[in-house]
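Sample intake sheet
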Amino acid sequence: MSGVISKAVQILDLLLPQGTEKDMSVTEISKALNMPVQSVHRLLTSLAEHGFVAKIQRRNVTSLVCPL
């Protein structure tokens, strides 16, 4: 699996553990996965463009959105 795809899947797995949604900030995701904040932000932007995650503006956290 591509490194970028693998990292994106890690983010999705972190945000959707065992079928329950989880809200996290970019910084929290970065620390949990030991990835640079910039990389996490870039991946989340791509995932959002495809409808997999959405940013909750009022709390500045990212939440998984099921596209189906």
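Comment: The mean pLDDT is 85. The longest strand covers residues 53-56.
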